[in-house]
Input
Amino acid sequence: MRQTAGQITHFVSSMGTTGTSMGCSRYFKEVKPEVEIVGLQPAEGAQIPGIRRWPKEYLPSIFDEEGIFAGMSSGGAVSASLKIAAEAPGRVVVCIVCDRGDRYLSTGVFDPPPPAHHSCYYKNLDLTLSQHRKALPEDMPLFMLFTAPWCPDCTTTLPIVNEIFTGQGAGANFSLLRCIVGKTREEWKDPRHPFRSDTRWGPNGLSEIPTLACLGTASSPLVQPRVLSGLEKIDREQVRFKVESFLKEQG
Output
Protein backbone atom coordinates (compact mmCIF):
# COMPACT_ATOMS: atom_id res chain seq x y z
CA MET A 1 0.00 0.00 0.00
CA ARG A 2 2.80 2.43 0.88
CA GLN A 3 5.00 1.65 -2.12
CA THR A 4 2.15 1.99 -4.64
CA ALA A 5 0.55 4.96 -2.85
CA GLY A 6 -2.62 2.88 -2.48
CA GLN A 7 -2.95 2.18 -6.21
CA ILE A 8 -2.46 -1.60 -5.95
CA THR A 9 -5.16 -3.55 -7.86
CA HIS A 10 -3.95 -7.18 -7.59
CA PHE A 11 -1.92 -9.14 -5.03
CA VAL A 12 -0.24 -12.37 -6.22
CA SER A 13 1.15 -15.03 -3.89
CA SER A 14 2.33 -18.59 -4.40
CA MET A 15 0.46 -20.98 -2.10
CA GLY A 16 2.59 -22.97 0.34
CA THR A 17 1.11 -22.91 3.83
CA THR A 18 -1.22 -20.08 2.54
CA GLY A 19 -0.22 -17.85 5.48
CA THR A 20 0.93 -15.02 3.23
CA SER A 21 -2.16 -15.30 1.03
CA MET A 22 -4.62 -15.25 3.92
CA GLY A 23 -2.86 -12.59 6.02
CA CYS A 24 -2.51 -10.16 3.12
CA SER A 25 -6.04 -10.94 1.90
CA ARG A 26 -7.55 -10.06 5.28
CA TYR A 27 -5.55 -6.82 5.37
CA PHE A 28 -6.71 -5.75 1.91
CA LYS A 29 -10.34 -6.62 2.72
CA GLU A 30 -10.10 -3.98 5.47
CA VAL A 31 -8.20 -1.19 3.73
CA LYS A 32 -9.00 -1.70 0.01
CA PRO A 33 -11.58 -4.42 -0.63
CA GLU A 34 -11.44 -4.20 -4.44
CA VAL A 35 -7.87 -5.58 -4.54
CA GLU A 36 -7.98 -9.00 -6.25
CA ILE A 37 -6.07 -11.76 -4.44
CA VAL A 38 -4.46 -14.31 -6.78
CA GLY A 39 -3.14 -17.59 -5.36
CA LEU A 40 -0.75 -19.72 -7.45
CA GLN A 41 -0.55 -23.51 -7.43
CA PRO A 42 1.73 -25.61 -9.65
CA ALA A 43 0.38 -27.74 -12.47
CA GLU A 44 -0.59 -31.32 -11.66
CA GLY A 45 2.54 -33.37 -10.97
CA ALA A 46 4.94 -30.41 -10.91
CA GLN A 47 7.56 -30.25 -8.16
CA ILE A 48 8.40 -26.70 -7.04
CA PRO A 49 10.02 -26.12 -3.61
CA GLY A 50 7.93 -23.95 -1.29
CA ILE A 51 4.72 -24.24 -3.33
CA ARG A 52 2.36 -27.13 -3.75
CA ARG A 53 -0.95 -28.10 -5.25
CA TRP A 54 -3.32 -28.65 -2.35
CA PRO A 55 -6.02 -31.34 -2.76
CA LYS A 56 -9.29 -29.94 -1.45
CA GLU A 57 -9.40 -32.41 1.46
CA TYR A 58 -5.88 -31.38 2.58
CA LEU A 59 -6.14 -27.62 2.44
CA PRO A 60 -4.44 -25.95 5.46
CA SER A 61 -6.90 -25.03 8.17
CA ILE A 62 -6.03 -21.32 7.88
CA PHE A 63 -7.04 -21.25 4.20
CA ASP A 64 -10.50 -19.69 4.14
CA GLU A 65 -12.46 -20.32 0.93
CA GLU A 66 -16.14 -20.94 0.51
CA GLY A 67 -18.59 -20.65 -2.34
CA ILE A 68 -21.68 -22.30 -3.86
CA PHE A 69 -21.66 -22.12 -7.65
CA ALA A 70 -25.41 -22.26 -8.15
CA GLY A 71 -28.01 -21.02 -10.58
CA MET A 72 -29.99 -17.88 -9.87
CA SER A 73 -33.02 -19.41 -8.16
CA SER A 74 -30.81 -21.68 -6.08
CA GLY A 75 -28.62 -18.70 -5.18
CA GLY A 76 -31.74 -16.96 -3.90
CA ALA A 77 -32.59 -19.97 -1.75
CA VAL A 78 -29.07 -20.08 -0.30
CA SER A 79 -29.10 -16.34 0.41
CA ALA A 80 -32.46 -16.55 2.19
CA SER A 81 -31.31 -19.58 4.19
CA LEU A 82 -28.23 -17.75 5.42
CA LYS A 83 -30.36 -14.81 6.54
CA ILE A 84 -32.83 -17.09 8.35
CA ALA A 85 -29.97 -18.95 10.06
CA ALA A 86 -28.40 -15.67 11.20
CA GLU A 87 -31.62 -14.49 12.86
CA ALA A 88 -31.32 -16.90 15.80
CA PRO A 89 -28.55 -19.23 17.02
CA GLY A 90 -29.27 -22.94 16.89
CA ARG A 91 -31.44 -22.98 13.77
CA VAL A 92 -30.80 -25.84 11.34
CA VAL A 93 -31.80 -24.54 7.93
CA VAL A 94 -32.00 -26.71 4.80
CA CYS A 95 -32.36 -25.60 1.20
CA ILE A 96 -32.03 -27.41 -2.13
CA VAL A 97 -29.55 -26.32 -4.80
CA CYS A 98 -31.15 -27.74 -7.92
CA ASP A 99 -29.28 -25.85 -10.65
CA ARG A 100 -25.56 -25.41 -11.32
CA GLY A 101 -23.98 -22.03 -11.97
CA ASP A 102 -21.99 -23.10 -15.05
CA ARG A 103 -25.20 -23.13 -17.11
CA TYR A 104 -25.45 -19.35 -16.77
CA LEU A 105 -21.87 -18.27 -17.52
CA SER A 106 -22.82 -16.84 -20.93
CA THR A 107 -25.72 -14.76 -19.55
CA GLY A 108 -23.54 -12.22 -17.74
CA VAL A 109 -25.20 -12.88 -14.37
CA PHE A 110 -21.80 -13.64 -12.80
CA ASP A 111 -20.06 -10.62 -14.29
CA PRO A 112 -18.79 -8.32 -11.53
CA PRO A 113 -20.67 -5.01 -11.17
CA PRO A 114 -18.85 -1.72 -11.69
CA PRO A 115 -16.90 -1.02 -8.50
CA ALA A 116 -18.79 1.20 -6.09
CA HIS A 117 -15.60 1.77 -4.11
CA HIS A 118 -12.23 2.69 -5.54
CA SER A 119 -8.87 4.24 -4.64
CA CYS A 120 -6.67 6.72 -6.46
CA TYR A 121 -3.53 8.83 -6.08
CA TYR A 122 -4.06 12.58 -5.68
CA LYS A 123 -2.26 13.43 -8.93
CA ASN A 124 -4.84 11.36 -10.85
CA LEU A 125 -7.87 12.51 -8.84
CA ASP A 126 -9.81 14.48 -11.45
CA LEU A 127 -9.37 11.83 -14.18
CA THR A 128 -10.27 9.00 -11.79
CA LEU A 129 -13.27 10.93 -10.48
CA SER A 130 -14.59 11.54 -14.00
CA GLN A 131 -14.25 7.88 -14.96
CA HIS A 132 -15.68 6.67 -11.66
CA ARG A 133 -18.82 8.80 -12.03
CA LYS A 134 -19.49 7.30 -15.47
CA ALA A 135 -19.45 3.77 -14.01
CA LEU A 136 -21.99 4.53 -11.25
CA PRO A 137 -25.81 4.67 -11.33
CA GLU A 138 -26.86 8.28 -11.94
CA ASP A 139 -28.57 8.72 -8.57
CA MET A 140 -25.84 7.08 -6.45
CA PRO A 141 -24.31 9.48 -3.88
CA LEU A 142 -20.53 9.71 -4.10
CA PHE A 143 -18.16 10.35 -1.19
CA MET A 144 -14.42 10.97 -1.05
CA LEU A 145 -12.11 9.94 1.80
CA PHE A 146 -8.74 11.69 1.83
CA THR A 147 -6.29 9.30 3.45
CA ALA A 148 -2.71 7.97 3.44
CA PRO A 149 -1.22 4.56 4.37
CA TRP A 150 1.48 6.14 6.56
CA CYS A 151 -0.99 8.18 8.67
CA PRO A 152 -1.93 6.62 12.09
CA ASP A 153 -5.27 8.46 12.23
CA CYS A 154 -6.09 7.16 8.74
CA THR A 155 -5.20 3.63 9.85
CA THR A 156 -7.84 3.99 12.56
CA THR A 157 -10.47 5.61 10.36
CA LEU A 158 -10.20 3.68 7.08
CA PRO A 159 -11.46 0.24 8.27
CA ILE A 160 -14.43 1.89 9.98
CA VAL A 161 -15.35 3.92 6.90
CA ASN A 162 -14.97 0.83 4.69
CA GLU A 163 -17.24 -1.13 7.01
CA ILE A 164 -19.88 1.59 6.98
CA PHE A 165 -19.88 1.84 3.19
CA THR A 166 -19.78 -1.89 2.47
CA GLY A 167 -22.15 -3.07 5.21
CA GLN A 168 -25.87 -2.61 5.76
CA GLY A 169 -25.62 0.72 7.58
CA ALA A 170 -25.85 4.37 6.63
CA GLY A 171 -23.44 4.11 3.69
CA ALA A 172 -24.68 0.85 2.16
CA ASN A 173 -26.06 2.51 -0.98
CA PHE A 174 -23.31 5.10 -1.40
CA SER A 175 -20.08 5.00 -3.37
CA LEU A 176 -16.70 5.73 -1.77
CA LEU A 177 -13.60 6.99 -3.55
CA ARG A 178 -10.46 6.88 -1.41
CA CYS A 179 -7.82 9.45 -2.38
CA ILE A 180 -4.21 8.89 -1.26
CA VAL A 181 -2.83 12.39 -0.58
CA GLY A 182 0.86 11.46 -0.74
CA LYS A 183 3.33 8.59 -0.71
CA THR A 184 5.09 10.11 2.30
CA ARG A 185 4.30 12.54 5.11
CA GLU A 186 6.78 14.99 3.59
CA GLU A 187 4.93 14.99 0.27
CA TRP A 188 1.65 15.74 2.03
CA LYS A 189 3.13 18.46 4.25
CA ASP A 190 4.76 20.28 1.31
CA PRO A 191 3.10 23.75 1.15
CA ARG A 192 3.07 23.41 -2.66
CA HIS A 193 0.75 20.39 -2.48
CA PRO A 194 -2.16 21.20 -4.85
CA PHE A 195 -4.81 20.34 -2.25
CA ARG A 196 -3.54 23.18 -0.04
CA SER A 197 -5.02 25.72 -2.44
CA ASP A 198 -7.94 23.65 -3.78
CA THR A 199 -10.95 25.49 -2.38
CA ARG A 200 -13.30 22.64 -3.30
CA TRP A 201 -12.32 21.12 0.05
CA GLY A 202 -12.66 24.28 2.15
CA PRO A 203 -11.91 28.02 2.10
CA ASN A 204 -8.25 27.28 2.86
CA GLY A 205 -8.02 24.05 0.88
CA LEU A 206 -7.50 20.64 2.47
CA SER A 207 -5.46 20.89 5.66
CA GLU A 208 -5.93 17.59 7.51
CA ILE A 209 -6.40 13.89 6.98
CA PRO A 210 -8.45 11.85 7.25
CA THR A 211 -11.24 14.00 5.79
CA LEU A 212 -14.53 12.78 4.29
CA ALA A 213 -16.38 14.77 1.60
CA CYS A 214 -19.81 14.40 -0.01
CA LEU A 215 -19.56 15.10 -3.77
CA GLY A 216 -23.26 14.86 -4.64
CA THR A 217 -24.52 12.14 -6.99
CA ALA A 218 -22.85 10.68 -10.06
CA SER A 219 -25.03 12.76 -12.41
CA SER A 220 -25.41 15.88 -10.22
CA PRO A 221 -22.04 16.68 -8.62
CA LEU A 222 -21.89 19.42 -6.01
CA VAL A 223 -19.97 22.54 -7.06
CA GLN A 224 -18.93 22.92 -3.41
CA PRO A 225 -18.65 19.48 -1.76
CA ARG A 226 -19.75 19.13 1.86
CA VAL A 227 -16.79 18.24 4.05
CA LEU A 228 -16.43 16.36 7.35
CA SER A 229 -13.13 17.05 9.11
CA GLY A 230 -12.18 16.57 12.76
CA LEU A 231 -11.45 12.84 12.39
CA GLU A 232 -7.94 13.23 13.76
CA LYS A 233 -6.92 12.03 17.22
CA ILE A 234 -10.28 10.55 18.22
CA ASP A 235 -11.15 6.95 19.11
CA ARG A 236 -12.93 4.42 16.90
CA GLU A 237 -16.39 4.93 18.39
CA GLN A 238 -16.16 8.69 17.91
CA VAL A 239 -15.07 8.16 14.29
CA ARG A 240 -18.03 5.86 13.67
CA PHE A 241 -20.49 8.28 15.26
CA LYS A 242 -19.22 11.29 13.30
CA VAL A 243 -19.15 9.46 9.96
CA GLU A 244 -22.59 7.87 10.36
CA SER A 245 -24.10 11.20 11.47
CA PHE A 246 -22.53 12.94 8.47
CA LEU A 247 -23.96 10.35 6.06
CA LYS A 248 -27.43 10.67 7.55
CA GLU A 249 -27.26 14.46 7.15
CA GLN A 250 -26.56 13.97 3.43
CA GLY A 251 -29.73 11.93 3.03
In short: DSSP finds six helices and seven strands in the chain. The chain has a mean pLDDT of 85.
